[in-house]
Amino acid sequence: MGTKLIIDTDPGVDDAFAIALAALSEDVDLLGVTTVFGNVSLEATTRNALRVLQLCGRADVPVAAGAERPLIHPQPARAVRVHGADGLSGRASALPEPERDLVPGGAVRLLVSLLEAADEPVTLAPIGPLTNIALLLAAHPDVKAKIARIVLMGGGVDRGNSTASAEFNIWSDPEAARRVLVEEDVPCVVVPLDLTYRCAVSTEWLAKLAAHSPIGAALEALTPDYLASYRRSLGWDGIVLHDAVAVAEAISPGILRTEAYPVEVETSFGPGRGATLVDRRRPGMRGEGEGAVAPSAVQVAVDTDVDGLGEFVLGRLTR
């Protein structure tokens, strides 16, 4: 089989599309799904993940619930204005009831067991706050050798969405994000807002998805609240599939063009909290001066064939 993948998620409409993208891809060995607080409560994100997997006929995929709050400070706010009170535009109950129970022991235990059992390195795709991943790396550093790379949706180079400078996933737990991106040495790909917004899809794209199959229709039916929110931010009728863009890169390495940059995460309190500081200066100038960004480097996704990416995601969801 192809890419061995574990998704860590907080569904969320775009998370639902991302889970389905992996679950329906024949060249993906989806080893497990772990859940985290984020767009809505942990109880809701976990229920939503189970239901999306059931929709896709993937009750075989183990699911475990993880962190219900950030590492240190309370989450400032949830994203119910964007995703609806239940995380899926108020339509979570329209998805099939899951046939599988949660794996006992929690997300970190499931992550450790899946990584230790893997016969080759595994890609992790965290598409919510990075709390579970920070806990995994802090408590079980020996599993790092089993991680091929971490492909995460989060951060912004030139913009935020929760604040002027901070993207929601990073802003929800900046300390966890800093642990993963700055303090660890696992290869990371950051898929930021700057690129995901460029990959927004239209209502025509959604109509093609809905017309193809009951699964496509069910996914499209989760978007009304999300669509209303993005109509305001985009200025046209479409949605941003943030997390599906990251999972596309996790599935098909190189579908996004990346560049290596030092990255720091702002953890102080003030208007910059949760910002991802990407040092785009020429290499010879980096590390100079007061307030220099840490020398560690991550791959930051900067470009893609936007139309091709949209066709890739649509093709996988309608295969």
TrEMBL record:
InterPro entries membership: Inosine/uridine_hydrolase_dom, IUNH, Ribo_hydro-like
Record keyword Translocase present: no
Pfam families: IU_nuc_hydro (PF01156)
GO MF annotation, one: purine nucleosidase activity
Gene Ontology biological process terms from the UniProt entry: purine nucleoside catabolic process
Presence of keyword Hydrolase: yes
All residue ranges annotated as the Inosine/uridine-preferring nucleoside hydrolase domain in the record: 5-308
Cellular component, GO annotation: cytosol
Keyword terms, alphabetized: Glycosidase, Hydrolase
Top-level division of the source organism's lineage: Bacteria
Protein name: Nucleoside hydrolase
